[in-house]
Every structure is written in C-alpha cells, then in structure tokens.
Amino acid sequence: MKRVKIVLKAALCVAFCLTLCGCSLLEFNTSQNLLPPAATGDEEAIQTALETYISGEYGSAAAGQYKLKYPNSGDYRTAFVVKDTDGDNVAEALAFYTLSDEQPLAHVNYLRKHGKEWESVADIESESADIREVRFSDLDGDGRLELLIGYEIAIARDSRLCLYRLSPIAMTELGAYWYTDFLVSRVVSEAQNDVTVFHISNSEYVVEATLISMQNGEMKTRGKAFIDGYIEKFAAIDSCRFEDGTTGIFADCEKENDTLITELLWWDGKHLQAPLYDPYANVTVKSARTSGLSFCDVDGDGTFEWPVCEELPLPESENGEPLWLTRWCSYDTAAEEDVTEFYSVTVPQDGYLLRLDNAWLGAVAAAYDKSAHRLDLFYTQDGKETLECVIRNSSAEDATPVETATGAVGQPAPFVYKTVSLKGSGADYRVWWNDQKDAALELDLNDILYRMTVLS
Question: For 162-218, what is each residue's pLDDT tens digit?
C-alpha cells in the first residue's frame, strides 16, 4: 500500500510541475514526430517490414531511432495508410517516418503484401520534414490509383505537391508543383482525372491556377490562368459539368475585410479560362461579397451558381437585422458570359432562401429577428408598407402554433398559416401569408414552396 501511495504522490508532483510550466497531460500534437507505438494486427506486420527495411538500409541502430510521421490534414492522418491501389483486392501500404532528429526529412516507404508477409518495395526521401496531406486518384484512366502527397516546405514558407506512380516493383515520381490547394476532377476528358493546382505565390499579388494532365505516361501542363492576386486563402473548391459538357471549376477564396469571391475556371479545349477575373486590375470584382454565402447548386440543375449580394432595405416599421438580396449567377460557356438565374431573399441563419420575382425588385423590404428566427417580407409602394409573408424556423421556436397570424405578426387582417417541411432541411418552417384578393404579392402555399429552397 505504501508503494502505491509513493507512486501516486510522484505522479501528482509531475502533473503539478507540468501545470506550472504551462503543459497539460491531455495535450498532444500528432503533427510532431512520434516514437513508434506498439502496433497491432496488420499494422504490426507493416511496421515490422518497415523496421526490417530500415535496419537493412541504414543499420540496426536506425531501426530503434526512427520516428513515425503523421499527415497534418486530409482524409489520411495516420503513419500507416493501407489501400488497394491497383484493384486486385489486395491492399498496399504506405509508411511515413523520419530516421532521427538529426535526419528530419520525411520518408515515404511503399510496401506490398506477398502471401501473408509484407515487404518494402520502395522508399523515397522527401524535401520536407512535414507531410501536409495524402490523396489517391486514377490520373491516367488505367484503373490504378496514383499517389498525391503534399509536403510543407518550412524554409520556403510554401507547400509542394508531388505525384507518384505505384507499380509492383517501384514508386516513381511523376511531377512536383508548388501549391496552396488543388482539386482532382475530370476536366479535359471523361477518360481520366486531371489536377488543378492553385498557388498563392510568395511574390506580391500573384495567384495562379495550373491544369495538369497525364499524357503518354507523363504529367503535362495543359494550361495556366491568373486569378485575383489578393487572395489570402481558398475556402472551398469543387467542379461541375456545364450544359455543353465542359467542366467548370469553382473556388471560393477569402480576401481581407471578410470579403469572399468566387473564381471560375473552365477548359475551352485549348486554354484554361478565368472569365470572372479582371487581368488589368488583377482582381475579381464580379463575385465579391461580404455575406459569407458560398457557391452551390442552388436550383438543383447539376451546375453551380455563385451569389452576388447586397443588403435588402429594412422596413421603416421594423428594427430587425437586414437580410441579403442575392443575385444567383451561372456561366454560359457558349456565349462566354455570366447569366442571372434569379434573385432571392437569403436567410443563411435558418438555411433557406425565398425566390423573388424580378417585378418585386425595389418593391420588397425584409427584416429578420435572430432570436425568433423570423423573416418578415413587406411590399412597399407609394410610401406604404404591407406585410405579405412571415416565415419562422419552428425548430427554434417555443411558441405554440396558431392558425392565424392575427396579433402574431402584428396585422389586423387574418393570414393563412401552414407548417411546411423542405426536403433536405431537417427543420419545419411555419409560414403565414396574406391570401386576400387585394394582396400585393398574390402568394399561395404552392407558390411559397416553389420559392423556398434549402441552402446546400
């Protein structure tokens, strides 16, 4: 019993000292080098094969000094990645490690299974001590996955994307590119994936997108395009098919002062185009907004639209928060121009928008009560304001449902009331609207349901 008390006191002293120096026993940074843990199952066999390779290549002492490396982001964040890359239903493996603190460059070891035994096939020493991310994609359409690894190059304050081909006997580098972010998608043809690399240069105000593809077993640059030179970060990148079968690449990009822009890239068969970018000013103004709204397939047609926002006027009788009048835009590749799809009152706080007719523009005002999750839509004409519609997110409302809007929305005339569910919203909405014959907007339930869309 005395021994237990002594051990416990010692442990408490250590914890107390760590607390005094600002450390926590619960804090742990997996991005740092880690001593090899006690692996189990298949990982144990992979680790044993790795140590056999290290011992044979660098000596037995190295096998006891190496440290595992963990990718800092992405879907693969373990030191051992097991994946069937060639479609034979037998997994291959990658192991990430450094030899020692004195030899900090990250190694990528490629292992394959022969019967029940794992064996190291290839080992590559990278240019960096840190692995940023790991991805896989079929870049040549042969059914085998190529390996894409992003490395953080601290000395250059930049990142390097390296592409590798994995074969039964080797791991071969296909190309390396400075990058900030990248997207793998089918751009040039349906036969294979391409890589679009985005890079914010350390040079002042230079941001570039590069489209690369596999041709005859080699990675080739298909095209380059400059985009807004003041981009600080890429928030979201995705692709979609346009009506003519070409691919559009959309990137939401953060700039200073909480400004968000959408950059659009598309391959016209010869060149990589960036139609929203103004090369003379080195900025993209057309899609700039401070609403925080992202591009999305807002109308469900399979292509993305980007939002252009301005504040809707507040009714004089209301003290709520202003909402965004949003113009949703798409791109017509045949005419090579952006197109307005529709306008909406957008309520990102409750995850929906309400379409507006073009005839309503300049004639509607809206207010939003954040605490009640309530949108009030007014029709304004000749200085008069008429409340036409009220929408509340019922999941955030404590009040008992009522069958009339009298009093509840501050109007003497009765409104029609319904609770509706929007597909994909995960919430019910309580809707009141003016169904009188002299109602300015002539709304009915079907019309409101048509106009309400869940924000993706």
Answer: 999 999 999 999 999 999 999 999 999 999 999 999 999 988 899 999 999 999 989
The conformation of residue 325, written as its DSSP 8-state character, comes to E
How many whole angstroms separate alpha carbon 346 and alpha carbon 323? Answer: 7
Beta bridge partners of 110: 94, 122
Q: In what order do the strands lie in the sheet with 158-166?
A: 130-137, 146-153, 158-166, 171-179
Residue 318 DSSP label:
-
Sheet holding 384-393, edge to edge: 364-369, 374-381, 384-393, 428-433, 416-421
3-state helix, strand, coil in the chain (%, to 5): 10, 45, 45
For the record, the structure tokens of 325 come out as 């009048």
Q: Are 225 and 209 in contact (CB under 8 A)?
A: yes
Question: Residue 240 has what pLDDT?
Answer: 96
pLDDT digits (tens, 9 = 90+) for 205-232: 999 999 999 999 899 999 999 999 999 9
Burial, 454: exposed, middle or buried (Cβ in 10 Å; 0-12, 13-18, 19+)?
middle
DSSP 398: -
249 backbone dihedrals φ, ψ, rounded to 5°: -110, 120
Residue 163: helix, strand or coil by DSSP? strand
Residue bearing tokens 């990148």? 237
Greatest alpha-carbon pair distance for the chain in Å reads: 90
Q: For 17-61, what is each residue's pLDDT tens digit?
A: 334 344 333 333 344 444 555 555 688 999 999 999 999 999 999
